[in-house]
Amino acid sequence: MLITHDTRCALDTVVDLVNSAPEDDTTPEGLPDVAALKEFVRQHEVSEVGALTEFDLTAVRRIRGRFAAVFAAPDARAAATLINELIAAAGTTPRLTDHDGYDWHVHYFAPGASVADHLAADCGMALAFFVVAGEQERLRRCEAPDCRHAFVDLSRNRSRRYCDSRTCGNRLHVAAYRARRKEAAG
User: How far is it, in rounded angstroms, from Cα 179 to Cα 59?
Assistant: First the structure.
């Protein structure tokens, strides 16, 4: 599956957005205030965003939950329904642009769209491409028992199981190794 620069950026953005939600009452909110939203927008180079307000923060948190539902969707039909709702609500207006030194690419958000509509349109379309390509199963949640972070499995054989193999994957492999050693020592 060919993944363009724009699609990859949108996928990284939607994964980070979904993972900014608190997993439970003990984990902090990743977007606690407007300043954090501004930093998120800056880090992900979300273009054409005006002044951000509390209203924007609330709207972004709301679509974050809807994107989380896409990663939890049991099948392509359910994911497509959720993505269609996000994109339709955003009032998409596909248009070609070549801003900030990037070659021609497509923006799906309408000019002057809110940051929530911008994210819903561009990130929704990136996820839609995976459903269209029959690759919805690549939209996953970490299999570590104490982590439910979202990620997009871009491995060749669709075998990635953890959000980050250096933390979640290694932690589980070390625990399994120690359990085997303990059992062998008996």
Answer: 45
